[in-house]
Amino acid sequence: MTATTYREAVTYLRSLERFGMRPGLQRTVELLRRLGNPHQANYHVFHITGTNGKGSVSSMVAAALRAGGYKTGLYTSPALELFRERIQIQGRPISESRVARLLTRVKLAVEAMVRAGFEQPTEFEVTTALAFLHYAEAGVDALVLEVGLGGRFDATNVVDRPLVTVVTNVSLDHMDVLGATVERIAWNKAGIIKPGVPCVTAASDGAQRVLRQEAQAMGAPLIDARSGVRAHFTSVHGQRISLRVGETVYSDLELSLLGRHQVQNAAVALQALEAARQQGLPLAEGAIREGLRSARWPGRFEVWDAEGPVPVVLDCAHNEASMAALADALREYFPDRLAVAVLGMLADKEVGPSIHHLLPRLRAAVVTTPGSPRALAAAGLAAQLPASLVVEVAPDPERALAQARRMLRAGELLLITGSCYLVGPLRRTLAARPAEAKPDVAFSSGRNLANRQKIGGLSSHLADHFRS
User: Fold this and answer.
1) Sign of the dihedral defined by the CA atoms of residues 382, 388, 389, 390, in that order
2) What is the pTM of this model?
3) Is the pLDDT confidence value at 147 over 60?
4) What residues pair up with 243 in beta bridges, in sequence order?
């Protein structure tokens, strides 16, 4: 087979989803060997894992590296709107033609592996190999590499000498794969720690104890990013914060991402960049400041039409910790508004404990089924919601969005949450609609926030979205 078109390439990748998630590095190591080991190319790697916040931290680190003049690759998952978002260089997704061309090489190597008796690689493993080929061929200077799941047995863990490793935090998620306790999950994530390589974390309690033990065994410094965080000012258009790193205080930093959880993520990103500087990576303070200011991570407490009659909040919160952070952010930024939610989750999530945090911020919910093979059916999700909440069921997300808009009352906001597989498609729907098609709700994408306010020099342009 020759993947002559992008459509054929994506179809092939989707066909691999049937192999599921299978921890282990052997398949990836063999596949990359047959491709010339592109993961061993000469670039600086920031390897980032964590239960929540790893995408936000990755986006901040990558933005700072770009601002510092480094040709920077960024690998993330899952995609929010387009598959190509997962593989970026200089903030631009990989082109369709490169996906098709590089995947042809990867697929030929996969077929040769299988003929030789090796186990079939998974979709994530094939995508990771594709990404490494892209970064090596393009000659990036730095790669911000987000773990797909866990860390120890994740396909990205073939990188054996990163510049810095990061474990943003650890809480319960993917327990069927990673373990039933925070400590066991922390052990899995600690697998990315490498000998002598500094590891930055904001994990606490039992999780940090596990990380510290693993780091000591590796002779790797463990840097706690929790101390020295001071949030000075926040509004729906951005935040101004002060962070301490060792004896240095970074005052009056501008952070575009919203929520107190993003302040902690910024502290992790800053510590990771400082650790890289301590190892000799030239990076000016101005580049770090610009990275925090300019970083965008769509679908993470992303607010559209913040001061309009019906603000819209899009958030990919999908587990208990991220739902708690979402509830806190709603309380902080919209204390006087309740929400009508379009809600959809995956079947492998702890639905009850997660939704519990959000219930005080909701008046009603329209429950739907995200576009994923792992989705929890709308009816099943509705059955887990309390009788005190007004609940409608609309298995199709587009119809759920329309129903939620009809249910909105004056003074409420529209919330779309529960999974990236729900937020991403509905985000595209909202961005594509002309203003006259939605007179009842003044949705705005980043393109249309013409009346952006400023906090000092901080833009409220919070809804940039990826282009096809």
Assistant:
1) positive
2) 0.90
3) yes
4) 229, 250
